[in-house]
Amino acid sequence: MLIFDNNSENDWNRQKVLERLSQVTLPAGLQPRMGTDWSPVGQIYFYHLKSANPKYDVMELKSIEDWTLEKQFQVRSQRRRCFESRGVTREYQVRVDPNKLVAYGLSISQVEQQLANNNVNAGGSFVEAGLQQINVRAIGLFNSAQDIAQTVLTTKSGTPLRLRDIASVAQGPKIRLGQNGKAIHRADGTVLDNDDVVEGIVLLRKGAKRGRDPGCAP
Q1: Could you report the per-residue pLDDT of 71-80, keeping only the tens digit for each?
Q2: Can you list the domains of the chain with their CATH numbers?
Q3: Hey, which residues does 160 pair with through a beta bridge?
Q4: What is the Cα–Cα distance from 51 to 131, expressed in whole angstroms?
Q5: CA distances from 167 to 53, 119, 149, 161, 173 (A)
Q6: Vertex 123: Cα angle to 119 and 125 (nearest 5)
Q7: Does pTM surpass 0.85?
């Protein structure tokens, strides 16, 4: 473990550590890790998402936090990192019927491998157009649960066996590790209590100044 003086230049320290790590030979199974350039004590801003539109439930708000807000914060403020916390994370779930799995002579590992193989990008060389070369590639990313269900697992007597034949595919909430609530006490004595909200935390990078920034300003 290496701990540097707070007055030293953080980027230079991290660069030197990476240079030295590339020269180190470690026993099998050991993987060195470098700590982040922010810390829990650098929390400078908390926020939570809410919507009056019933279409946006907690899971939908969490998706907006993960794929829109957090990325915008990262791009517009290089000195800070926005760390999401709590909420229902959306994921694609493949619910395999064990009886059908056994009946077709398949294993879970085979299903996982086929899903991985069908969800990767592949290069296709290039096409010449005059003096230019246009690269060709195949995008293998799934766009919907229906795309996942169409994945071919194997072929039986010339008939493709698809994932939908042995499992159901749907979007659902990821297993949660916690829940965050928020209560607002108004001056008239009423309490607005929400036991499940999506919250985000903005962390200040080491050595950065806290001054107002359009990327993370409330």
Answers
A1: 777 766 555 6
A2: 10-89+175-204 (no CATH), 93-173 (3.30.2090.10)
A3: 155
A4: 53
A5: 33, 18, 8, 11, 18
A6: 160
A7: no
